[in-house]
Amino acid sequence: MTKPCQTTETHGRRMARKNVVYMFLLGWTIVSLGLFTYHLSKHTNMRVGAHSDHQENFQLSSVFEYKRTADDVTNIRKASVVGHVVSKPHVQRSPVPNIQQSCQNSTTLPNEDKKGTNAGLNKKSKSKQTNNYVGKIKNETRTVSNDAKIAHVNTRKSTKKSAKQVVINSFSKRIRENIQQRMLKYKRRSNEKRRPLPRADERLRTQNVYKHDLQYLKYMKCPTTLRHKMSRRPALKGKYVKDVPILLTREHVTDSEYNRLKVFRDMMGWKGSKFEVILKTMDLLKTSRNQYLFDDRLVNDKVVNGNCIRCAVVGNGGILNGSRMGREIDSHDYVFRTNVAITKGHEDDVGNKTSFYCFGMKTLSGAISGMKNKGFSAPPWNPKIRYVFLPEDDWAYRYIYAALTHGILPKGRKERYAKREPFVFPKPLVPEDIKIIHPDFCRYIDNSWLRSLKLRRVGRATTGAIMIFLALHTCDEVNAYGFMGDPNKFTFHYYDQNFTKSNGLTRVFWHDWDKENALWKLLIKEGIFHMYTRN
Prior knowledge:
The chain is mostly helical. It folds into two domains: 2-85 and 93-109 and 123-190; 212-531, Alpha-Beta Complex (sialyltransferase cstii, chain A). Helix content is 47%, strand content 6%. It contains 15 helices and nine strands. The chain starts with a helix and ends with a strand.
């Protein structure tokens, strides 16, 4: 029974000794910092004091010279009145011209004969005049001394500032050089950003070049497909491109394609992504299920003719709150959802079925970190769900590779103050669950349909808009829900408990909702698809 007590006592003594050592080190550090600060301030004060004493002695000597000059003039005037001849001592004149002029003028009385000193004048009147002039000289001397004191104070302040500046400059030379170098780099970058954009025709000629792909033939097995309607409408002429690639496959990853797409940013290209990362990720997605959206309809890896597909695209707009459209949404063959797709507790309004979940890595990471309090902590899951990735950078490719090879999930690139944290899917991913949108398809949506004049440099289509166009280019009938809600009547999201007003472009500056709403109205008018408007 004594051993545990001895062990506890020994451990306590060890901790006490450690605390004593830590306190000693802390005290030594504080004393060292204090001594360093003291010597630094002493060095600064010595430099300032030496310079200020020199200036003070100079100013006081000048004041004394002013007073000595005035006293000499007084003695000369008194000697001239009495009749004595006084030799004027050698005095260094003040550098102030006004005092010299007054002193020189005061040596001669008005109406005085230059040959005689006091002939024919009364002694009392002469002494009175002398006293008046002496009083004037004393007043001038007082004003000069006051001016000299003021100048001395100002000089002392400037001297302290200059001395401190000398010390600061001596200690911060390297810091100032680093700041100057950084400023030069910043100016160069800002100048590069301010360079004029290329001509509109040249820019569009490079951006409107897409890879010709035969994927569209797989989605034209239905006689009433939407592709026929979009190609025949005069209002949509020049917008619809039938052979643009939709899903990214292994055959698309080549050196020539990488060189073509590496100049486009975000999800519209491969700028900032490494070719090796994309290649090794797409090597894991070689199956026929990764090359066709509705892979559960394949028969012997082939698409069957005559199958017409009916799809529902569900947004997160507040227009669905209280709509009671859940049963109608679930009646479709496939249901597309995006971002914060909360269905639990809202089944009557938005349904419960999810076939395709579309997302960008950055958006989903931010949504999960900010919406956990509302019950959204992971992407939705069911046995038949497919995940549609919108790669904004190489984070999506690195994440897919790590998830399929059971490696460590990587973080996103550093943005603002921290890196994006990786999220975890409810079930382990397999290659058949993953679809990746081709960059040409995203750029085609932006160039042909949703090019914003307001947000030309930074804007892009919303994830919901990309999801609608994905359905329009793959499905044969499309119905959209949760879009075009009146901001004065409905909340921003259908799961918002409090009223949150949706105010278009001021909500998120990189999306042009006005442009998208105008396009939806045009497509509805042309009979391309239907949208729930709650009228």
